[in-house]
Amino acid sequence: MMRAWILPMLLVLSGSAVAAEQIATGSPGTGAALLLAFLALAGVNSPLVFPRSIGAREAERRSAVDGRPVVLRRPGCKYCIRLRVRLGGSARQLHWVDIWRDPEGAAQVRAANDGNETVPTVVVAGRPHTDPDVGRVRDRLSSSA
């Protein structure tokens, strides 16, 4: 779990250093804007934005039991972040797989996308959908509840 916080913490520390330098050189507005940008990047890359990632095999097992979709994602992917934000609180009901941490998940994404690691790839009832419409994902969640 601690590894998941390394990038966000580095972004916060880097942003603080850059902001402090800007403030010291007489540009407090620029320093504040840069600090906010670094904090936003840290937030987006933190475990707070995405639910805890599980392995692809475990996600498939859980999905077979509860019927909820599996989302194969990659850290820092703007399309994955967009999906997460648009789903709001219901995103916690999905099974999230970080393909950079799970080779099986990465292989699944490549198999579904002609060898490319195109994410988000949402697996619903065993069928992959690349960058699906958020409404369809919500519909699937409501039908599995």
Automatic annotation (TrEMBL):
UniProt keyword list: Signal
Residues covered by the Glutaredoxin domain: 71-127
Bias type Basic and acidic residues, positions: 128-145
Region (Disordered): 125-145
Classification via InterPro entries: Glutaredoxin (IPR002109), Thioredoxin-like_sf (IPR036249)
Superkingdom assignment: Bacteria
Keyword Glycoprotein: no
Gene3D superfamilies, per the entry: Glutaredoxin
Signal peptide: 1-19
Keyword Signal set for record: yes
Identification of the protein by name: Glutaredoxin domain-containing protein
Organism listed in the record: Streptomyces cremeus
